[in-house]
Design brief:
1 helix; 9 strands; single chain; four-stranded antiparallel sheet; mainly beta; 41% strand; 150 residues; Jelly Rolls
């Protein structure tokens, strides 16, 4: 398993934060895959800032598999935001077995856990796990438009 970090997770781009309690801010996080991710690789893509909770999200992806295998799990990661540690894991609170990387498209969560994130005092990472690797990888981008409430 390899931990892949987006420009956000590397600290190269600073995402917005809700300016006041009850305020909602939306931001699209994106990552371009230049090479094929392997089975169980994790992309640290986005952040839920300290004190915020997820209101909604939209995932979009290019067609990154000429076959029919590529599946993603998307959830909250273990460990600390922006820490490059290959032992980190990711849950499936938002999506489990999402197949939009196979032909491209977009998706919104249908799991109830996606809308029940709690506010905590530390930043949390949202990760994308390669649950099933591509059989015919194609270069492409995955994006996550995250709506968070402060």
């Amino acid at each position: 398993m390899t931990l892949i970090q987006s420009k956000y997770a590397k600290g190269l781009i600073i995402p917005p934060f809700p300016a006041f309690a009850g305020g909602v801010v939306a931001h699209r996080f994106a990552h371009d895959f230049a090479s094929a991710p392997a089975l169980n690789d994790i992309l640290e893509l986005a952040v839920i800032p300290a004190g915020a909770c997820v209101v909604d999200m939209i995932v979009d992806s290019d067609d990154m598999d000429s076959g029919t295998a590529l599946l993603f799990d998307i959830g909250i990661m273990s460990g600390n935001w922006q820490v490059n540690d290959g032992a980190r894991t990711v849950g499936a609170e938002f999506f489990s077995g999402l197949n939009i990387g196979q032909a491209g498209g977009s998706a919104r969560p249908s799991l109830k856990t996606a809308f029940r994130t709690q506010r905590i005092g530390t930043d949390r990472s949202i990760g994308v796990k390669i649950a099933t690797a591509a059989t015919g990888f194609l270069l492409g981008q995955i994006g996550l438009t995250l709506l968070i409430e402060g």
